[in-house]
């Protein structure tokens, strides 16, 4: 019950932008949280775009973002994402260092994204800590800040200080945070929405090319490709060049459940997506998710989510109607 309460509370995020920030890094930082909000049907996360002075910030490709507030005026929250990307050395100023040191007490955790670790180090927040940065700057970071243990890892978690080495690794770091709050299945759902973890063309490579840590992702790719006509677990193992027992062990090591349960959860989450986002009948949804019997799918759906597909759709319709009514009310007051 405590874990459920933890996952249901709203988490506030500050995204600190600097001139020439990366659009891709920004999208990878917030879109996964938006997906969690959509999947859960409630606002699990809220984020604000910040700048040091509260003014607008323009990205490296010309996207202009109006900050919601200055960093000093934000009350704090779960995470502060520091995102300078390009021209980060120009942002390395005494004022920036002071603002970051002051913000540390207001946020539970601070993450240096892309080149953000440089500014965290300049503020003295990485002394004696382990961190990573974009690979182009790893040597420079180590030379400029010898008290920082610079890692070549893509993502580093060091207590309340997090870091990652670029735009794609920002997505990986955020998935880690989502998994810690909501479990491995939510991570898988969010990753699947963005096709993250699909090992394109893995079937054309010799099985030995799959590292042990890639096996669960490769299995998931096969499962997602065969939702309507499910493969047997033995066939999935065969296609990956593994024994069934080895596949089960790899999935247990990574997700805490076996491939059969993982496959079932994947099919049911596709059923939930179809119930929420389409007008398909329950029978049609069942067929598309590999069930010959709609009643069997509905029972499994209720066990997994606590509601039937029809009840979920009724909730969606009521929510959409409420939003429409609120929008009409706002229009009438103008």
From TrEMBL:
InterPro entries the record matches: Class_I_gatase-like, DJ-1/PfpI, Homeodomain-like_sf, HTH_AraC, INH-QAR, Tscrpt_reg_AraC-type_HTH
Start and end residues of each HTH araC/xylS-type domain: 217-315
Region (Disordered): 308-334
DNA-binding recorded as keyword: yes
Pfam families the record matches: DJ-1_PfpI, HTH_18
UniProt cross-references to PANTHER family, sorted A to Z: ARAC-FAMILY TRANSCRIPTIONAL REGULATOR, HTH-TYPE TRANSCRIPTIONAL REGULATOR RV1931C
Name under which the protein is recorded: GlxA family transcriptional regulator
């Amino acid at each position: 019950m405590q874990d459920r309460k933890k996952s249901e509370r709203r988490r506030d995020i500050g995204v600190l932008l600097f001139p020439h920030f990366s659009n891709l890094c920004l999208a990878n930082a917030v879109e996964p949280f938006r997906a969690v909000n959509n999947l859960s049907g409630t606002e699990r996360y809220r984020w604000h775009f910040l700048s040091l002075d509260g003014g607008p910030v323009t990205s490296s490709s010309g996207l202009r973002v109006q900050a919601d507030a200055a960093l000093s005026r934000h009350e704090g929250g779960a995470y502060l994402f520091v995102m300078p990307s390009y021209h980060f050395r120009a942002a390395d100023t005494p004022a920036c260092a002071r603002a970051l040191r002051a913000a540390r007490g207001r946020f539970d955790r601070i993450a240096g994204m892309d080149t953000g670790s440089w500014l965290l180090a300049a503020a003295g927040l990485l002394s004696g800590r382990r961190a990573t940065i974009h690979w182009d700057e790893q040597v420079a970071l180590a030379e400029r800040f010898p008290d920082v243990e610079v890692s070549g890892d893509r993502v580093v978690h060091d207590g309340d200080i997090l870091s990652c080495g670029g735009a794609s690794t920002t997505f990986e770091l955020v998935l880690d945070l989502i998994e810690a709050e909501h479990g491995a299945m939510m991570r898988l759902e969010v990753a699947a929405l963005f096709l993250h973890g699909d090992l394109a063309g893995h079937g054309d490579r010799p099985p030995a090319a799959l590292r042990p840590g890639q096996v669960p992702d490769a299995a998931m790719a096969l499962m997602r490709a065969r939702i309507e006509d499910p493969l047997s677990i033995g066939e999935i193992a065969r296609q990956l060049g593994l024994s069934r027992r080895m596949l089960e062990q790899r999935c247990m090591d990574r997700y805490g459940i076996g491939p059969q349960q993982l496959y079932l959860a994947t099919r049911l989450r596709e059923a939930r997506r179809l119930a929420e986002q389409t007008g398909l009948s329950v029978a049609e949804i069942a067929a598309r998710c590999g069930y010959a019997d709609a009643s069997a799918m509905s029972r499994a759906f209720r066990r997994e989510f606590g509601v039937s597909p029809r009840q979920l759709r009724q909730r969606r319709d009521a929510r959409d109607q409420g939003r429409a009514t609120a929008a009409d009310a706002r229009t009438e007051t103008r």
